[in-house]
Amino acid sequence: MSSDEGEAAMTDKASYDRLQKDVDAVKSDISNLAEQITDALNGLAGTAQKQARRGYKQARSSVDGIVSDLSEQGSAAFDAAQDAAATLSESLEDAVQQRPLAAVGLAIGLGFLIGVTWRR
User: Fold this and answer.
1) What kind and span of H or E run contains 16?
2) How far is Cα 98 from Cα 24, in angstroms, rounded to an integer?
3) 12 found inside a domain
């Protein structure tokens, strides 16, 4: 083996060793990058989950408030309807007591109209 061949072999060996170190460094960098990406994705997932929970709680609170308001409005409407029915009942009683013959005539007339309509 000549000295040129020996020098070339040593140069090739040194180049190979440097290339191997570079490949190992790139592998390590890729591994670190993969870990960083995994951590970032886990962080994003946790943040998204927290935001989803917060949104759910806000929506539920809004729905509960709306249901409560509707319940109160329904109760108020029911009370108003009961009051109106009671007032109408009292008005009819007063009208019948004041004009009993007119009330009987009105009842007979309404009965006749309903009977004629019912036959058709």
Assistant:
1) helix 3-98
2) 110
3) yes
pTM exceeds 0.85 for this model = no
> What range defines the domain where residue 15 resides?
3-86
Q: What pLDDT is recorded for position 2?
A: 59
Please say whether the beta carbons of 71 and 78 come within 8 A: no
Per-residue DSSP letter, 2? -
Greatest alpha-carbon pair distance for the chain in Å reads 144
Residue 7 included in any domain: yes
Q: How confident is the model at residue 107, as a pLDDT?
A: 87
Residue with tokens 């949104």: 55
The secondary element (H helix, E strand) that includes residue 120 is none
DSSP 39-57: HHHHHHHHHHHHHHHHHHH
Q: DSSP per residue over 72-111, as a string?
A: HHHHHHHHHHHHHHHHHHHHHHHHHHH-HHHHHHHHHHHH
Query: CA–CA separation, 60 vs 70, rounded Å?
Result: 15
Q: What confidence tens digit (pLDDT) does each residue in 27-43 have? A: 999 999 999 998 888 88
* Residue-level pLDDT at 8: 67
